[in-house]
Amino acid sequence: MKVLHIIPSAFNYFDDIRAEAFVWLDEENNFGLESEAITLEFGSTTKQEQSEIKAVAPNRQFVGQQTISKNSESWDKFDIINLHCPFFGAAGEIIKWAKDRTDKSLVVTYHNDFRTPDFFSLIIKLYNIYYLPKVFSLAKAVCFFANRCRQSSGGLNTLKDDKKAFVLGQISAELDMHNTDIVSDLIMVYNNITLTNN
Question: Which of 3, 47, 140, 184 would be a feasible disulfide site paired with 105, CB 3.0-4.6 Å?
């Protein structure tokens, strides 16, 4: 299975999401998936960002910046696109791709509600208020974290179809989930979606 992670990276607003997502990417590859990533970046990538990515995902190759429209041409080779949210940028391309390719699967991993410590972050928050309902409606699955329910109330309230919701990292006897490993749970979501798509 081939998975593309779309990871937000606007300045330092999404450092926590970027760090988590790159670690999971390497773990997915260890489980036998072919996982790659692109970041939604603004401005040129700094050497510090490159070294941070190399530190958390040493097996990843850093290609550099490409326009999102050029990059989206290569998304068809992936079975699943995993968009990490909240995010900033490329919503139009992502929505267009998901609408045009109903045979492919868009998964959203919602990390937590976005905090607004300054004016620019307010713009990012408004961006997500506008685009998240559209992205959620096109997604085959929206993943939340068991240990972050309070930090994800905005995302939980935005999701209108409870059947799309998956909780990562919880122990549930009903679902026969026997561990709290995020990557194992994500792979179960991918497999579930792939099986129900065919």
Answer: 140
Q: Which two tokens mark 191?
A: 């497999």
Residue 189 backbone phi and psi in degrees, to 5 = -65, -50
pTM, two decimal places: 0.84
- pLDDT one-digit tens code per residue, 65-115: 566 777 888 899 999 999 999 999 899 999 999 999 888 899 999 999 998
What single-letter amino acid sits at 37? A
38 contacts 67 by C-beta, under 8 angstroms: no
What is each CA distance from 156 to 61, 99, 113, 142, in whole angstroms?
Answer: 34, 23, 10, 9
Do residues 131 and 123 touch, judged by C-beta distance below 8 A? no
- Where would I find the beta strands (DSSP E) of the chain? 2-8, 34-40, 80-85, 105-110, 141-145, 165-168
- Contact present, 175 and 118 (Cβ < 8 Å): no
Residue 174's pLDDT band (cuts 50, 70, 90): low
Is residue 153 within 8 A of residue 119, CB to CB? The reply is no
Map out the domains of the chain as residue ranges: 2-197
Q: Tell me, what amino acid is at 25?
A: L
In one-letter notation, the amino acid at residue 86 is P
Judged against a pLDDT cut of 70, whether residue 129 lies above it is answered with yes
Domain boundaries 2-197, CATH class = alpha beta
Record the tokens describing residue 92, joined without a space: 């139009």
